[in-house]
Protein backbone atom coordinates (compact mmCIF):
# COMPACT_ATOMS: atom_id res chain seq x y z
CA UNK A 1 0.00 0.00 0.00
CA UNK A 2 2.78 2.41 0.78
CA UNK A 3 4.36 1.71 -2.63
CA UNK A 4 1.04 2.37 -4.39
CA UNK A 5 0.58 5.58 -2.43
CA UNK A 6 4.08 6.73 -3.37
CA UNK A 7 3.46 5.92 -7.03
CA UNK A 8 0.14 7.79 -6.91
CA UNK A 9 1.84 10.81 -5.37
CA UNK A 10 4.53 10.76 -8.07
CA UNK A 11 1.90 10.51 -10.81
CA UNK A 12 -0.01 13.45 -9.34
CA UNK A 13 3.18 15.50 -9.08
CA UNK A 14 4.14 14.66 -12.69
CA UNK A 15 0.67 15.60 -13.90
CA UNK A 16 0.86 18.85 -11.97
CA UNK A 17 4.25 19.68 -13.45
CA UNK A 18 3.01 18.93 -16.97
CA UNK A 19 -0.08 21.07 -16.43
CA UNK A 20 2.01 23.96 -15.08
CA UNK A 21 4.41 23.69 -18.01
CA UNK A 22 1.59 23.65 -20.56
CA UNK A 23 -0.06 26.63 -18.88
CA UNK A 24 3.22 28.53 -18.91
CA UNK A 25 3.74 27.81 -22.62
CA UNK A 26 0.20 28.93 -23.43
CA UNK A 27 0.75 32.12 -21.46
CA UNK A 28 4.01 32.84 -23.29
CA UNK A 29 2.35 32.21 -26.66
CA UNK A 30 -0.54 34.50 -25.74
CA UNK A 31 1.84 37.26 -24.66
CA UNK A 32 3.90 36.89 -27.84
CA UNK A 33 0.74 37.01 -29.97
CA UNK A 34 -0.41 40.11 -28.10
CA UNK A 35 2.97 41.79 -28.61
CA UNK A 36 2.86 41.04 -32.33
CA UNK A 37 -0.68 42.34 -32.57
CA UNK A 38 0.25 45.55 -30.77
CA UNK A 39 3.34 45.97 -32.93
CA UNK A 40 1.37 45.33 -36.13
CA UNK A 41 -1.32 47.78 -35.05
CA UNK A 42 1.36 50.38 -34.34
CA UNK A 43 2.90 49.91 -37.79
CA UNK A 44 -0.53 49.99 -39.38
CA UNK A 45 -1.43 53.21 -37.57
CA UNK A 46 1.88 54.73 -38.62
CA UNK A 47 1.31 53.63 -42.22
CA UNK A 48 -2.26 54.97 -42.28
CA UNK A 49 -1.08 58.30 -40.91
CA UNK A 50 1.57 58.54 -43.59
CA UNK A 51 -0.97 57.59 -46.24
CA UNK A 52 -3.48 60.19 -45.06
CA UNK A 53 -0.73 62.82 -45.02
CA UNK A 54 0.25 61.89 -48.58
CA UNK A 55 -3.38 62.04 -49.72
CA UNK A 56 -3.67 65.54 -48.28
CA UNK A 57 -0.30 66.66 -49.67
CA UNK A 58 -0.90 65.57 -53.27
CA UNK A 59 -4.16 67.42 -53.76
CA UNK A 60 -4.32 69.97 -56.61
CA UNK A 61 -2.71 73.23 -55.62
CA UNK A 62 -0.35 71.69 -53.08
CA UNK A 63 3.43 71.61 -53.44
CA UNK A 64 3.67 67.84 -53.83
CA UNK A 65 1.03 67.67 -56.55
CA UNK A 66 3.66 67.71 -59.31
CA UNK A 67 5.56 64.87 -57.64
CA UNK A 68 2.35 62.86 -57.32
CA UNK A 69 1.58 63.48 -60.99
CA UNK A 70 5.08 62.36 -61.95
CA UNK A 71 4.66 59.17 -59.90
CA UNK A 72 1.28 58.54 -61.51
CA UNK A 73 2.69 58.94 -65.01
CA UNK A 74 5.51 56.58 -64.09
CA UNK A 75 2.94 53.83 -63.50
CA UNK A 76 2.31 54.08 -59.75
CA UNK A 77 -1.42 54.67 -59.65
CA UNK A 78 -2.41 54.08 -56.04
CA UNK A 79 -1.35 56.00 -52.97
CA UNK A 80 0.02 52.76 -51.50
CA UNK A 81 2.48 52.29 -54.38
CA UNK A 82 3.46 55.96 -54.40
CA UNK A 83 4.07 56.08 -50.65
CA UNK A 84 6.05 52.84 -50.74
CA UNK A 85 8.25 54.18 -53.54
CA UNK A 86 8.82 57.42 -51.63
CA UNK A 87 9.77 55.50 -48.49
CA UNK A 88 12.25 53.32 -50.39
CA UNK A 89 13.72 56.28 -52.30
CA UNK A 90 13.92 58.41 -49.16
CA UNK A 91 15.58 55.58 -47.24
CA UNK A 92 18.11 55.06 -50.02
CA UNK A 93 18.93 58.77 -50.19
CA UNK A 94 19.26 58.97 -46.41
CA UNK A 95 21.58 55.95 -46.36
CA UNK A 96 23.71 57.49 -49.12
CA UNK A 97 23.89 60.80 -47.26
CA UNK A 98 24.86 59.10 -43.99
CA UNK A 99 27.55 57.04 -45.71
CA UNK A 100 28.96 60.10 -47.47
CA UNK A 101 28.85 62.21 -44.32
CA UNK A 102 30.50 59.48 -42.26
CA UNK A 103 33.23 58.98 -44.84
CA UNK A 104 33.99 62.68 -45.07
CA UNK A 105 33.87 63.13 -41.30
CA UNK A 106 36.17 60.24 -40.41
CA UNK A 107 38.51 60.06 -43.41
CA UNK A 108 38.74 63.69 -44.52
CA UNK A 109 40.68 66.65 -43.17
CA UNK A 110 38.16 69.23 -44.37
CA UNK A 111 36.67 71.71 -41.90
CA UNK A 112 33.18 70.94 -40.53
CA UNK A 113 31.56 73.80 -42.46
CA UNK A 114 32.81 72.45 -45.79
CA UNK A 115 31.76 68.91 -44.80
CA UNK A 116 28.25 70.21 -44.04
CA UNK A 117 28.16 71.98 -47.41
CA UNK A 118 29.20 68.80 -49.20
CA UNK A 119 26.52 66.85 -47.33
CA UNK A 120 23.88 69.35 -48.45
CA UNK A 121 25.13 69.07 -52.04
CA UNK A 122 24.98 65.27 -51.78
CA UNK A 123 21.43 65.43 -50.40
CA UNK A 124 20.22 67.71 -53.20
CA UNK A 125 22.00 65.60 -55.82
CA UNK A 126 20.44 62.36 -54.55
CA UNK A 127 16.97 63.91 -54.52
CA UNK A 128 17.42 65.28 -58.02
CA UNK A 129 18.68 61.86 -59.11
CA UNK A 130 15.40 60.31 -57.95
CA UNK A 131 13.45 62.87 -59.98
CA UNK A 132 15.58 62.18 -63.07
CA UNK A 133 15.01 58.45 -62.64
CA UNK A 134 11.26 59.02 -62.49
CA UNK A 135 11.34 61.14 -65.64
CA UNK A 136 13.29 58.46 -67.49
CA UNK A 137 10.75 55.90 -66.35
CA UNK A 138 7.95 58.13 -67.63
CA UNK A 139 9.67 58.36 -71.03
CA UNK A 140 10.03 54.57 -71.26
CA UNK A 141 6.42 54.09 -70.26
CA UNK A 142 5.29 56.67 -72.83
CA UNK A 143 7.15 54.75 -75.54
CA UNK A 144 5.51 51.46 -74.50
CA UNK A 145 2.06 53.06 -74.46
CA UNK A 146 2.62 54.47 -77.94
CA UNK A 147 3.71 51.07 -79.23
CA UNK A 148 0.66 49.31 -77.77
CA UNK A 149 -1.89 51.92 -78.80
CA UNK A 150 -2.43 50.79 -82.40
CA UNK A 151 -3.23 47.26 -81.25
CA UNK A 152 -5.64 48.60 -78.64
CA UNK A 153 -7.38 50.78 -81.23
CA UNK A 154 -7.80 47.93 -83.70
CA UNK A 155 -9.23 45.54 -81.12
CA UNK A 156 -11.44 48.28 -79.69
CA UNK A 157 -12.87 49.08 -83.11
CA UNK A 158 -13.60 45.40 -83.79
CA UNK A 159 -15.34 44.96 -80.45
CA UNK A 160 -17.35 48.14 -80.92
CA UNK A 161 -18.53 46.98 -84.34
CA UNK A 162 -19.67 43.71 -82.75
CA UNK A 163 -22.06 45.72 -80.57
CA UNK A 164 -20.48 45.76 -77.13
CA UNK A 165 -21.04 48.55 -74.66
CA UNK A 166 -18.11 50.60 -73.44
CA UNK A 167 -17.91 48.83 -70.08
CA UNK A 168 -17.97 45.39 -71.71
CA UNK A 169 -15.43 46.57 -74.27
CA UNK A 170 -13.05 47.79 -71.58
CA UNK A 171 -13.51 44.57 -69.61
CA UNK A 172 -12.66 42.40 -72.64
CA UNK A 173 -9.64 44.53 -73.51
CA UNK A 174 -8.34 44.34 -69.96
CA UNK A 175 -8.68 40.57 -69.91
CA UNK A 176 -7.53 39.63 -73.42
CA UNK A 177 -4.64 42.08 -73.94
CA UNK A 178 -2.99 41.62 -70.55
CA UNK A 179 -0.01 39.81 -72.08
CA UNK A 180 0.39 41.75 -75.33
CA UNK A 181 -0.24 45.25 -73.97
CA UNK A 182 0.44 45.28 -70.21
CA UNK A 183 0.80 49.05 -69.77
CA UNK A 184 -2.35 49.77 -71.75
CA UNK A 185 -4.41 47.18 -69.89
CA UNK A 186 -3.24 48.69 -66.60
CA UNK A 187 -4.65 52.07 -67.59
CA UNK A 188 -7.82 50.47 -68.91
CA UNK A 189 -8.26 48.52 -65.66
CA UNK A 190 -8.01 51.75 -63.66
CA UNK A 191 -10.54 53.39 -65.97
CA UNK A 192 -12.93 50.43 -65.73
CA UNK A 193 -12.67 50.30 -61.93
CA UNK A 194 -13.54 53.98 -61.61
CA UNK A 195 -16.51 53.67 -63.98
CA UNK A 196 -17.84 50.59 -62.18
CA UNK A 197 -17.44 52.41 -58.86
CA UNK A 198 -20.09 54.90 -60.02
CA UNK A 199 -18.01 57.83 -61.28
CA UNK A 200 -19.13 59.79 -64.29
CA UNK A 201 -17.77 58.19 -67.44
CA UNK A 202 -17.03 61.38 -69.36
CA UNK A 203 -15.35 63.08 -66.41
CA UNK A 204 -13.27 59.98 -65.68
CA UNK A 205 -12.08 59.77 -69.28
CA UNK A 206 -11.11 63.44 -69.32
CA UNK A 207 -9.26 63.16 -65.99
CA UNK A 208 -7.32 60.14 -67.23
CA UNK A 209 -6.52 61.98 -70.47
CA UNK A 210 -4.93 64.77 -68.42
CA UNK A 211 -2.74 62.28 -66.54
CA UNK A 212 -1.60 59.70 -69.08
CA UNK A 213 1.82 60.57 -70.58
CA UNK A 214 1.11 59.48 -74.17
CA UNK A 215 -0.28 61.98 -76.69
CA UNK A 216 -2.00 59.22 -78.64
CA UNK A 217 -3.69 57.98 -75.50
CA UNK A 218 -4.85 61.49 -74.70
CA UNK A 219 -6.47 61.74 -78.14
CA UNK A 220 -8.15 58.35 -77.74
CA UNK A 221 -9.51 59.12 -74.27
CA UNK A 222 -10.86 62.50 -75.38
CA UNK A 223 -12.51 60.74 -78.33
CA UNK A 224 -14.12 58.20 -76.00
CA UNK A 225 -15.32 61.02 -73.74
CA UNK A 226 -16.86 62.81 -76.71
CA UNK A 227 -18.58 59.64 -77.91
CA UNK A 228 -19.79 58.91 -74.38
CA UNK A 229 -21.29 62.39 -74.10
CA UNK A 230 -22.86 62.82 -77.52
CA UNK A 231 -22.84 59.40 -79.15
CA UNK A 232 -22.02 58.94 -82.80
CA UNK A 233 -19.96 56.65 -84.95
CA UNK A 234 -17.02 55.65 -82.82
CA UNK A 235 -15.82 53.07 -85.32
CA UNK A 236 -15.06 55.67 -87.99
CA UNK A 237 -13.51 57.99 -85.41
CA UNK A 238 -11.24 55.20 -84.16
CA UNK A 239 -10.25 54.39 -87.72
CA UNK A 240 -9.34 58.02 -88.41
CA UNK A 241 -7.42 58.20 -85.15
CA UNK A 242 -5.50 55.04 -86.10
CA UNK A 243 -4.51 56.57 -89.43
CA UNK A 244 -3.45 59.78 -87.70
CA UNK A 245 -1.31 57.83 -85.25
CA UNK A 246 0.28 55.85 -88.08
CA UNK A 247 1.13 59.07 -89.92
CA UNK A 248 2.51 60.53 -86.70
CA UNK A 249 4.67 57.47 -86.10
CA UNK A 250 5.90 57.53 -89.69
CA UNK A 251 6.88 61.18 -89.27
CA UNK A 252 8.71 60.39 -86.03
CA UNK A 253 10.59 57.54 -87.70
CA UNK A 254 11.60 59.84 -90.56
CA UNK A 255 12.88 62.41 -88.06
CA UNK A 256 14.87 59.72 -86.26
CA UNK A 257 16.37 58.51 -89.54
CA UNK A 258 17.34 62.05 -90.57
CA UNK A 259 18.94 62.70 -87.17
CA UNK A 260 20.77 59.38 -87.37
CA UNK A 261 22.07 60.17 -90.85
CA UNK A 262 23.36 63.52 -89.61
CA UNK A 263 25.13 61.84 -86.72
CA UNK A 264 26.65 59.25 -89.03
CA UNK A 265 27.88 62.03 -91.34
CA UNK A 266 29.56 63.73 -88.39
CA UNK A 267 31.16 60.43 -87.36
CA UNK A 268 32.42 59.86 -90.89
CA UNK A 269 33.87 63.37 -91.04
CA UNK A 270 35.67 62.89 -87.73
CA UNK A 271 37.12 59.44 -88.35
CA UNK A 272 37.35 59.07 -92.15
CA UNK A 273 38.47 62.55 -93.16
CA UNK A 274 41.94 62.25 -91.56
CA UNK A 275 42.49 58.88 -93.24
CA UNK A 276 41.29 60.28 -96.58
CA UNK A 277 43.58 63.28 -96.18
CA UNK A 278 46.54 61.00 -95.52
CA UNK A 279 45.79 58.83 -98.55
CA UNK A 280 45.26 61.71 -100.97
CA UNK A 281 47.75 64.29 -99.70
CA UNK A 282 50.37 61.86 -98.42
CA UNK A 283 52.21 61.24 -101.73
CA UNK A 284 52.32 64.95 -102.56
CA UNK A 285 53.60 65.80 -99.10
CA UNK A 286 56.32 63.13 -99.40
CA UNK A 287 57.32 64.39 -102.85
CA UNK A 288 57.52 67.96 -101.56
CA UNK A 289 59.65 66.85 -98.63
CA UNK A 290 61.98 64.92 -100.97
CA UNK A 291 62.32 67.91 -103.31
CA UNK A 292 63.17 70.24 -100.46
CA UNK A 293 65.73 67.73 -99.24
CA UNK A 294 67.40 67.58 -102.68
CA UNK A 295 67.54 71.35 -102.84
CA UNK A 296 69.25 71.45 -99.46
UniProtKB/TrEMBL annotation:
Membrane topology: Multi-pass membrane protein
Transmembrane segments: 6-22, 83-107, 113-134, 266-288
Pfam families referenced in this protein's UniProt entry, alphabetically: T2SSF
Main subcellular localisation: membrane
Annotated ranges, domain Type II secretion system protein GspF: 153-280
InterPro entries: T2SS_GspF_dom (IPR018076)
A single GO cellular-component term on record: plasma membrane
Localization per record: Cell membrane
Protein keywords: Cell membrane, Membrane, Transmembrane, Transmembrane helix
Protein's name according to its UniProt entry: Type II secretion system protein GspF domain-containing protein
Species whose genome carries this gene: Zobellella endophytica
